[in-house]
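Recall the central idea of this unit: under ordinary conditions, the amino acid sequence of a chain determines the structure it adopts. In this exercise we apply that idea directly, starting from the sequence alone.
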Amino acid sequence: MTRPRLRHLAFVVRDAERMAAFYCAQFGMELFHTDPDGSRFVTDGYLNLALIQQRLDGDVATGFNHFGFQVTDVPPIADRLAEAGVPRPALRGGDRPFAEYRAIDPEGNWFDLSEHGFLPPGAGAE
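Accordingly, the structure predicted from this sequence is:
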């Protein structure tokens, strides 16, 4: 049996429509579902990201810790993000084996950018 692969992440957000538009515009993700409450679901073709509309009568706070994108080249992505009005991604310090850059979306959620991926050093893509 092959190991399970991460294919879905979820955030509770204040403005699901705006967040879906951001990820579609900045990372080429595609909207594939909208719930009656306004929650949006986008995908990159492998992983899907649920952007769950926060409810005023709910008790769930917005956010999540972070997630990551593997990219071919960080500088053009960093330029697009800065043009979109979010801070330019910052080089992460320390001896991290992956996730070279930390970035932030319009609502303050962290995400990482990596040119070589998120597998431990020496691990091959399966």
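Strands lie at 8-13, 30-34, 40-43, 48-53, 66-70, 90-91, 101-104, 110-114.
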